[in-house]
Amino acid sequence: TREQAKASAMMEGFERYSAERQDIDGERTFVDTYNNIKNERNVLDPKDLLLPKNYGNENVENSRLEWIEAEDIISEETVYVPSNAVFHPYIPTREVSPSPIAIFKGNTNGLASGNIIEESVLHGIFEVVERDAWSIFELTKRNKKEINQENIDNEIINELLDKFHSQGIDIKLMDITADLKITTIAASADDTVLKDPALLSLGVGTHLDPEVAAIRALTEVAQSRATQIHGTREDTINADFMRKSGYEHMKRMNKHYFEKEEDTINLSDIEDKSSHSIKKDIETSIEEVQKVGFNQILYTDLTREEIGINVARVIIPKAELYSLDEERLGNRALEYDRKARRGLV
User: Fold this and answer.
1) CATH number (domain holding residue 189)
2) Could you tell me if residue 176 is inside a domain?
3) Burial of 134 (0-12, 13-18, 19+ CB in 10 A)
4) Which domain holds residue 258?
5) Which end of the chain is more exposed for a tag (fewer CB within 10 A), N or C?
6) Residues 201/221, Cβ–Cβ less than 8 Å
7) Helices 117-140 and 278-291 meet at what angle, rounded to 10?
8) Chain centroid offset of residue 343 CA
């Protein structure tokens, strides 16, 4: 509904505001090198954040970084993480000399809000898992199954699909869940009437409930189209390139998102692991995260007293984020590709 869209936009605005480093944050941060503090504090190795190639291991371990406290919801311990991974945009503090450095471009991955901090953390986990699954697909093109739209038994999903189809917009729904079994759904939109290459859009959603993941993917692809049409976001900078390349060429370049598959699956075949409890959903998410070898889920509470909206930044060390930042590559996609070749996933 329009009201839900407004609420979603407001919450994203609160998230962005809360993620900015403010003067008061200087009280809970400190500057030092990883090598200086690793034996004194429980501190995250910066390399576990998947650094760009231009940062060598020795360089980053001896670089002055700004650190902030995070909580590990698995071990229930305090862990210090680089502020660069928490604040966005990250501008290194100049309150100390020499100043700390930034070790990668900032982003909003894992930044989420909610009615209570636990809900914010859960949403943050879903976003990190989403970027991980999407990155693995972008790099391997393996974790994808098209979803049959003919037998979806969900009124909201069918209503959304009807709105697209009535305007000549083809939608392809895909399950791109990788080895981490929290469902990630992608939705691609192809405007067959306008045939504008800049309107070849994609939305991705993640949730323990596959139907909720599909709804999120569909509403996100609608948002992606709207931002291109109205030119209201930084995503639009690629529009000129896409239009110069042409509609058919862009579809061929991205055929894995737009070509129809011979074999499909039913949305109802994907297991719904959700409950009616945020606490239980967090516990289930922890179980799924641990099954693929992750041993930490970290969060920093970014709730700002002046607005009173619960905001958290979630970090799952070593999770892929290539879909967000192509300079930062981990080993999970490569391992997934190897397992897929051997029929193990």
Assistant:
1) 3.30.160.660
2) yes
3) buried
4) 140-269
5) N
6) yes
7) 30
8) 27
